[in-house]
Amino acid sequence: MEKYTIRRMLPGDCADILLAIKELAKALKAEEQVVVNEEILLSDGFGENRLFECFVAEYDDAIVGYVLYCTMYSSWVGKKAFMEDLYVKPKHQRHGVGTRLWRTAVKEALKDGCNQMEWGACSWNTSAIEFYKRKGAINITDIEQFHTYRLSYESMHKFVNSGEKMGESDGEGRTHVHST
After folding, report:
1. What is the pLDDT of residues 155-176, one digit of tens each?
2. Three-state SS at 66
3. Cα-based torsion angle of the residue sequence 116, 120, 124, 126 in order, rounded to the nearest 10 degrees
4. What is the DSSP code (8-state) at residue 12?
């Protein structure tokens, strides 16, 4: 097996991580959706309020893959992790790199008190889906009929400004909703 090193992302890795993010987005046919830049990665990954964790895979001192995740809260299970990206450059796939990156993220999430890890996969990305299933993942869409939805930045603004009266706070932390 070739020598790959897995380590925590460093501030100086932001340019390489951004390049890998763009490569992944291109592979997923979603290049236009990438709006982060190096400064955002640096601030969100290393700022006062760190928003994500990231581990990288290196080969010959070059970053060839990464896993990026964050923690969130579930009213059912408590603290859990959400894996945003798991990416290994095509030339380095099928060498166990993705498994090692993912395992590292799962170990860290467990150490951090997470009870679950969730992520999304494109339905057409059958190789990724099979990879996840081989490792014990379940497709909650198939089993629980649970679908995940998203509001884009523009949709968030449209929703907030749609003219619906959302409710008024009573000063005690309760919001009273009024129909329009």
Report:
1. 989 999 987 655 555 556 565 5
2. strand
3. -30
4. G
Per-residue tokens: 54:
């990231």
The upper half-sphere exposure of residue 110, i.e. CA atoms within 13 Å in the direction of its Cβ, equals 6
**Per-residue model confidence as pLDDT tens digits over 74-98:** 999 999 999 999 999 999 999 999 9
Active-site residue flag, 132: yes
Q: What stretches of the chain adopt beta strand conformation (E)?
A: 5-8, 53-59, 62-74, 78-88, 117-119, 168-169, 175-176
Give residue 180's pLDDT: 43
DSSP conformational letter for 19: H
CB 135 within 8 A of CB 103: no
Q: Would you state the pLDDT for residue 44?
A: 97
Report the b/e string of 114-148 with b at 16+ CB within 10 A.
Answer: beebebebeeeeeeeeebbeeeeeeeeeeeeeeee
Domain ranges within the chain, ordered by starting residue:
5-119
User: What does CATH list as the number for 5-119?
Assistant: 3.40.630.30
pLDDT at 97: 97
Choice among 4, 66, 87, 132 that is catalytic = 132
Low-confidence ranges of the chain (pLDDT < 70): 1-2, 164-180
pLDDT at residue 175, as a whole number: 56
- Assigned token pair, 136: 């014990």
